[in-house]
Amino acid sequence: MGRLRAKGKAGAAKAYVTRTSAIKKLQCSLADFRRLCILKGIFPREPRSRKRANKGSSAPTSFYYAKDIAYLAHEPVLKKLREHKAFAKKLSRALGRGEWSDAKNLEDNKPVYRIDHIIKERYPTFIDAVRDIDDALCMVFLFASLPSNARLPPSLIENCSRLAAEWQLYVMHTRALRKTFLSIKGIYYQAEVMDQTVTWLVPYQFTQSIPADVDVRVMLTFLELYQTLLGFVFFKLYTDCSLVYPPPLDVKKDEGGAGVGAFSLQNASQPAPAVAPKPQAVEIDGRKISGKDVRQAIKTMTGADSEINGDVDMQTAESNPMEVDEEFVPQQSTSDPQSTSSLTTLKALTALPQSLTTSLFSPYTLYLSRETPRSIFEFIVRSFGGRIGWPASSGSGSPIDESDESITHVIIDRPLVERTDETPEERERRSRRKYVQPQWVVDCINAGKILLEEPYAQGHTLPPHLSPFGEYEGAYDPTVGLTGQTAEESESEDEDVVLPDEEEAEDGEQVAEKSALRAAAAANDTASLRAAELAAEVAGVDYGTFEKEVRKSRKKSKAPAKDDAEEGEQDMNKMMMSNKQKKLYERMKYSEKKKASERATLAGKKQQLEKQKKRESKAG
Amino acid sequence: MAALPRSKKRKQSSEDVVAAVEAPAFSAPVQSLEMLSDDEGPEETASDDGQVDEFPEIDGASDSEEEALGDDEDEEDEDEETDKEDFEEADSDDSLDRDIFPKPKTIISDITGQPKRVYPEIEPDYDSDSSTEDTQNRVGDVPMHWYDDLPHVGYDMDGKKVLRPARGDELDKFLSTVEDPSAWTSAFDKTAQMDRPLSAEELDIIRRLYANEVPDAGYNPYEPMTEWFTGKGKEEIMPLSAAPEPKRRWVPSKWEKQKVMKIVRAIRQGRIISSKPKTASKLDFYSIWSEPSTSHAPPLPAPKPRLPTNSESYNPPEEYLPSEAERAEWEALDPEDRERDYLPTKHSALRLVPAYDRFIKERFSRQLDLYLAPRIQRVKLNIDPSTLIPKLPSPQSLKPFPNYKSLKFTHSSRARCISISPDGAWVISGDEGGVVSLWEVNVGREVKRWKFEGKIGALEWCPRLDVSYFVVGVEETLHFVIPPNVPSSIFLLTQSLLAPATLPPAPETPSPVKWVTPPTSSWSPDTAILTVHLPPSSGLPKQITWHRRGDYMASVSSGGTQGGVWMHQITRRHSQAPFKKIRGAVQLVLFHPLKPHFFVATQQYVRIYNLSEQKLLKTLTPGIKWISSMDVHPSGDHLIVGGYDRKLCWFDLELSDKPYKILRYHTRAIRSLAFHPTYPLFASSSDDGAIQVFHSRVYNDLMTDPLIVPLKILRGHTVKDGLGVLQVRWCARQPWLVSGGADGTVGLWCS
């Protein structure tokens, strides 16, 4: 007999701790524990036996690995959180006593935690970090579009929008964007960075409001982690491209609504032009600087550090506005007029190397109509090497004017309206340009080639927009039309549908014909087939229809007969499966059947729709 | 002493005052009236002033000693003044007196009969001290609850009772508040016990209190300050005291200096560090991945959310759009039960796509998933489900086995039991009506029919080939019957066996089982040649089973002691109960085909006894709730047990007490099981009306597991009253199966 073992000293009882006991062990509040879990990426585990892990109780609790909690106990952030608790106590006491200077002093020395070590710990290599930035990007893009309120300080929103712009700049610079999908939830983008596919979702540009049943604290904690993570990732990405991080922001452009264009990418090897021409820039401003101005400036400088940065950025941006554009948009010397047609006609172009598809729009210059969302299409078009312009109402910083001669496409999302007061010049311009709906741009990049503009022209009903990400294997494919066989079947079905109407008018001879055909359908062996053939001949059915009927009936009868025998055998063999296998088999069969039924319903619907369309076209 | 004469003088003057006060009481009222009318204006004010100033003066007589310390001259002046004023006052008091003391009338009281003075009613006019209040109740400042139980609330000035004013109920009160426009500015007067409208002054006071002002309207809190000691020309230039100014006023503090020096020293020594200059709290980013990482394995990356499919498009193909029914179904589901969290919608243009209202909610739920949901790493099975089905030889290669129904024999009621002769040519089948039919296997012709009293519980043909008879179990008896058309040699041998001329000696111990042979003269082929009477109240014999030699036979009855199991020896015409007592209700018994072993199936267990050693060998636990049937393989090493809970257990007796294989394929209870004596086949029948035929190959070496292959499901019996096929039996030499069903048919299934 082995050594006696006390209960709860080894195994699952030791390896798992409940959340309550974890909090007790860490001596922190639940909110702090939650924050730590979010930052450290610790999540509950499902023990194999809940009862064994919870000392015999089967109460619903969440379990954590005891080792995870032991690691948390040594976390510097936990120490800082405890310090913060003490600080909060001191501060509230000082405020209660009305000791304002003490309170201010305390506030100045507020404990602040850093989470860079956590980033390093969670993502030991850069690839790990890049693989995991999907959620971070989604959050940052979401918060960049939120209005600031008491819970969301403007600085947070600003930082989020800065990070979002930096990511877009990087993707545009490296031409990393691969796929885009306009969904009802927002716009999905997929980029390939460091051989990792990064997918993120950007909401449409509407004011979002945080619903009441969403815990903002949780979201903000995640956002805190994500901001830091993205900061480090972007730093590495930018420096690897030998760019300066953070890219300087042009405040004046930003205020003008330039969006991504307000940032300028700088090569790290070039000396930053911001520092040198400082006095010069002041002169360019064309203002005389009096002592008063200086004093005022000093006052503002002491007020906020950021304004200093803003000043500097403004000067840098002004010094090289054109360079920025050239960095992003390599100008194609000549756009081959033939290339368009060849691209659209050749289907084999889908298999082209990536390098060509990333510069898909490089021969074109696009112009955005004012109702199309600029941020989306500027990003997409510039990531694929195109030049793009927009009206001033969509924000400042458009590199081209509407009257620019080089514009080849106008992205327009308005219904077609006949204009009477068109000048000949405008008409001429209109005829030269192609007016397409926004979906054309997205479908082009998903297809990897320039599609024909005709179906996407202004005012046309758009072809369906499909997901570029694909579905599971064997899913219903909407692009595949009804195959020949099914088409034939449906045709014959159509005939069947029509037949009853004719039948009423037909006389007895026709009825005999029918019965002969039916006999043919029923005939199985050669003798009966022969008899049926004779009967058909007597009835006056021509040989072609007879053959067709026979073929159809054979197809129908043969396949199920064979299947039946096999299936019966299989069914019997299922008896010999163990219970576990049987359950697994049932599950797999269930999911298979579900997928098949899904596919069948979609195909059925499509068939129905097509029939309806045909009928309408016949009627119309 | 100046004080004494002064006090005397004072006394005197006070006496004067008294005299003066008293004097006018007797003066003519006419005169005083005149005086009043004469100097209304100046006199009035003077007298008022006099009154206000006067009273302290009069009272002050007692504390004059205090003031005596002051200057006497002043006092005397004042005295003179007071004297003067006293006179004046005396004049003015005349009028007062008249008001305070009105003349009483003397009347005869009609109650006492005594004369009594009645004063005239006081006209509360402007002069009267109670002019501001018109209250009648003069009860004073007493708690009003003293009057709670009384009809009056106090007394008026004349000592008359002031009756409690009528107060309506709450409804009246409410109505009065509605009707009376001044109701909201009236308050309950305790002394009058009624609501009184507040006066303008009172309302003003209330307003002031609300506005946090001084309640007194006449009080001016911002009166100009009278500067007594400051201001122009009033500066005090002379010091208040002659003490010299202390040094601390102009020498810096030594202690302060020490304290400062202490701090200075501490700063110099570095004990006090000045607060760091505020750095930008923003985290500056650096190349965090430039240093090599620790050896820790990175945590598993969180699973990525599923990528969007075509149905999520803003402009999906039309077939993706939900129909009305699908939409209603989606909306009826709880949000957590929905397969997709959105309904596909189609927008004709991008500009028409609205904001997605659950965007933040979905982001939030993703985060909850990230930090609250347990994660399990699952191996994704990417296999074809058909590979899970075991590969078994095709039934076509395992022929012969019964395939189709070739004959049908019909009973009038449920065909409960069947038996096939050991040569395989004859079938006897018994039904619940007590009819036993003998018919040929090949053609299904009924040869003979017997009728017994009550249900037929069991039928079994003796396995011996040199004799030919069968046993029929009916209510508490076993009948031994010789079939007709047997060869005479066999018939004679059978007759001598069952009804010998000389009976074997009776056993020593008397048995409750009686063996009765009817006299030879009365015997006919229609009756039993031998009858065994089981003990009374033992019930219907459920099962009869033969030992392979055909000498011993065991019967199981539904009731009775000793589990209802009886072992009968034909040659010795003797029966005995093998068990004195047995745990559980015995369902079935079986003889081992080769060894002297005996299988007993109780409700849940199968026990194996060694009959020669008289001991329990092992107990098998099939895990069946209620065993219904059992059969042993002809080799004796394998046993199949079926239960009413649809399970079939295959036991390898060499291997374990636990089943080697458990099969559950019938949809209803298993009724009967049978191994074929020569072919590798077994069959099971069930209440679902199906018979399942299996190939069961048993190998001689211990290493190879028995091969069980399902061959055929025979359907042909109809389910009646929830009962299907009640018994199946194999023909001894052919792969043919005979089955008896609850529908009264007995079927023969041929290959």
From TrEMBL, chain A:
<keyword id="KW-0698">rRNA processing</keyword>
<keyword id="KW-0690">Ribosome biogenesis</keyword>
<dbReference type="GO" id="GO:0000466">
    <property type="term" value="P:maturation of 5.8S rRNA from tricistronic rRNA transcript (SSU-rRNA, 5.8S rRNA, LSU-rRNA)"/>
</dbReference>
<feature type="compositionally biased region" description="Low complexity">
    <location>
        <begin position="330"/>
        <end position="341"/>
    </location>
</feature>
<dbReference type="InterPro" id="IPR010613">
    <property type="entry name" value="PES"/>
</dbReference>
<feature type="region of interest" description="Disordered">
    <location>
        <begin position="319"/>
        <end position="341"/>
    </location>
</feature>
<dbReference type="GO" id="GO:0000463">
    <property type="term" value="P:maturation of LSU-rRNA from tricistronic rRNA transcript (SSU-rRNA, 5.8S rRNA, LSU-rRNA)"/>
</dbReference>
<feature type="compositionally biased region" description="Acidic residues">
    <location>
        <begin position="488"/>
        <end position="509"/>
    </location>
</feature>
<comment type="similarity">
    <text>Belongs to the pescadillo family.</text>
</comment>
<dbReference type="GO" id="GO:0005654">
    <property type="term" value="C:nucleoplasm"/>
</dbReference>
<feature type="compositionally biased region" description="Basic and acidic residues">
    <location>
        <begin position="607"/>
        <end position="620"/>
    </location>
</feature>
<dbReference type="GO" id="GO:0030687">
    <property type="term" value="C:preribosome, large subunit precursor"/>
</dbReference>
<feature type="domain" description="BRCT">
    <location>
        <begin position="356"/>
        <end position="458"/>
    </location>
</feature>
<dbReference type="Pfam" id="PF00533">
    <property type="entry name" value="BRCT"/>
</dbReference>
<dbReference type="GO" id="GO:0003723">
    <property type="term" value="F:RNA binding"/>
</dbReference>
<feature type="region of interest" description="Disordered">
    <location>
        <begin position="549"/>
        <end position="620"/>
    </location>
</feature>
<comment type="function">
    <text>Component of the NOP7 complex, which is required for maturation of the 25S and 5.8S ribosomal RNAs and formation of the 60S ribosome.</text>
</comment>
<comment type="subunit">
    <text>Component of the NOP7 complex, composed of ERB1, NOP7 and YTM1. Within the NOP7 complex ERB1 appears to interact directly with NOP7 and YTM1. The NOP7 complex also associates with the 66S pre-ribosome.</text>
</comment>
<dbReference type="InterPro" id="IPR036420">
    <property type="entry name" value="BRCT_dom_sf"/>
</dbReference>
<feature type="compositionally biased region" description="Basic and acidic residues">
    <location>
        <begin position="583"/>
        <end position="598"/>
    </location>
</feature>
<feature type="region of interest" description="Disordered">
    <location>
        <begin position="479"/>
        <end position="509"/>
    </location>
</feature>
<dbReference type="GO" id="GO:0070545">
    <property type="term" value="C:PeBoW complex"/>
</dbReference>
From TrEMBL, chain B:
<comment type="similarity">
    <text>Belongs to the WD repeat BOP1/ERB1 family.</text>
</comment>
<dbReference type="GO" id="GO:0030687">
    <property type="term" value="C:preribosome, large subunit precursor"/>
</dbReference>
<dbReference type="InterPro" id="IPR012953">
    <property type="entry name" value="BOP1_N_dom"/>
</dbReference>
<feature type="domain" description="BOP1 N-terminal">
    <location>
        <begin position="147"/>
        <end position="402"/>
    </location>
</feature>
<feature type="region of interest" description="Disordered">
    <location>
        <begin position="293"/>
        <end position="321"/>
    </location>
</feature>
<feature type="compositionally biased region" description="Basic residues">
    <location>
        <begin position="1"/>
        <end position="11"/>
    </location>
</feature>
<dbReference type="Pfam" id="PF00400">
    <property type="entry name" value="WD40"/>
</dbReference>
<dbReference type="InterPro" id="IPR028598">
    <property type="entry name" value="BOP1/Erb1"/>
</dbReference>
<keyword id="KW-0698">rRNA processing</keyword>
<dbReference type="GO" id="GO:0070545">
    <property type="term" value="C:PeBoW complex"/>
</dbReference>
<feature type="region of interest" description="Disordered">
    <location>
        <begin position="1"/>
        <end position="143"/>
    </location>
</feature>
<comment type="subunit">
    <text>Component of the NOP7 complex, composed of ERB1, NOP7 and YTM1. Within the NOP7 complex ERB1 appears to interact directly with NOP7 and YTM1. The NOP7 complex also associates with the 66S pre-ribosome.</text>
</comment>
<dbReference type="GO" id="GO:0000466">
    <property type="term" value="P:maturation of 5.8S rRNA from tricistronic rRNA transcript (SSU-rRNA, 5.8S rRNA, LSU-rRNA)"/>
</dbReference>
<dbReference type="GO" id="GO:0043021">
    <property type="term" value="F:ribonucleoprotein complex binding"/>
</dbReference>
<keyword id="KW-0539">Nucleus</keyword>
<feature type="repeat" description="WD">
    <location>
        <begin position="408"/>
        <end position="449"/>
    </location>
</feature>
<feature type="compositionally biased region" description="Acidic residues">
    <location>
        <begin position="36"/>
        <end position="94"/>
    </location>
</feature>
<feature type="repeat" description="WD">
    <location>
        <begin position="663"/>
        <end position="704"/>
    </location>
</feature>
<dbReference type="GO" id="GO:0000463">
    <property type="term" value="P:maturation of LSU-rRNA from tricistronic rRNA transcript (SSU-rRNA, 5.8S rRNA, LSU-rRNA)"/>
</dbReference>
<protein>
    <recommendedName>
        <fullName>Ribosome biogenesis protein ERB1</fullName>
    </recommendedName>
</protein>
<dbReference type="InterPro" id="IPR001680">
    <property type="entry name" value="WD40_rpt"/>
</dbReference>
<dbReference type="Pfam" id="PF08145">
    <property type="entry name" value="BOP1NT"/>
</dbReference>
